[in-house]
Amino acid sequence: MITEVSTRKIKCVIWDLDNTVWNGTLLEDSEVTLRTGVVDIIKELDQRGILQSISSKNDYENTMKKLKELQLDEFFIYPEINWNAKSGSIEKIVKSINIGMDTIAFIDDQPFEREEVNSVLPEVLTIDAAELSSILEMDEMNPTFITSDSKNRRKMYMSDIDRKKIEDTFEGPQEEFLASLQMKMVISPVELEDLQRAEELTVRTNQLNTTGYTYSYEELAEFRKSPNHKLFIVELEDKYGSYGKIGLLMVEVVGKEWWVKLLLMSCRVMSRGVGSVLITHLLKLAASESAKIKAEFVETSKNRMMYLTYKFAGFKEAERNGNHIVFEHDYSNLQDYPEYVEVIVK
Known about the structure:
Blueprint: E1 12-15, E2 22-23, E3 33-34, H1 38-47, E4 51-57, H2 60-69, E5 80-82, H3 86-97, E6 104-108, H4 111-120, E7 125-128, H5 148-151, H6 153-169, H7 174-180, E8 183-189, H8 195-204, H9 217-225, E9 229-238, E10 241-254, E11 257-265, H10 274-288, E12 292-298, H11 304-312, E13 316-321, E14 324-329, E15 341-345
Parallel strand pairs: 1-4, 1-6, 4-5, 6-7, 8-15, 11-12
Antiparallel strand pairs: 2-3, 8-9, 9-10, 10-11, 12-14, 13-14
């Protein structure tokens, strides 16, 4: 059975293997065969931009060998193949990917394993492997749009894994490592072809999001044409490849005041200083038009990093009402773009 939870969009599907991805138990029979239709499901989820991983009680080396033999190993990031509790493995995967637990689905044929995960991680959507044939039709597995970033999401995460390995062994200051990446950041007005990705960013981004506001495609299309709004999208690449379109900024112009309604960044660029660079661009632009700059902020348990980003950029709290904050900046100590990134403004 599929447990009832609030409707949401799944960002990562975590698979059991024995009698779920394949028929049989690998430890008992090395000639296990794939379940009918499972490869098509895995490939379709991948095309939709839904990440996939593994939580399986098995021997790691033999299991990875079998996955490679079946040409499926490349579809799974951060696989947890061990004899630990499934809930613990899922927690490790979620921490590695850095997404919310309520965006995870777990597929397993064993009621005991699903119940163990449910008891420890009630936010996780658990799915009986017997329901495989209906998974692709689930609302949770169907994003509103499938963008080029969606289709390349797994490959971009795999590049992030390579970057992380290099970062962990890098000796020297953080800014030296960032400079070694040869990052190029492009800030441009949102064009018609960007709207689907812009909506996807507002829906998917919770941690590095200053307000948590979400906007539909139609609303963003209106903001893009509005003389009272400025809407920018951010793309990032480095010597290892593209991160895709990873940031969004929306400003409402009210007379001589600019109100930042939305500032968000993909969690994949949390350690790249991209938020500070975008704020610097915003301040330069507002200063050039002699506008007073204010920023709405809705404090949550997840977006502390964005609060600190504003503070480090010189914003001060002007008002606070519960978790709603209004920041202001007086243009003192206006910073320039950091040397470790090339900024291209279109």
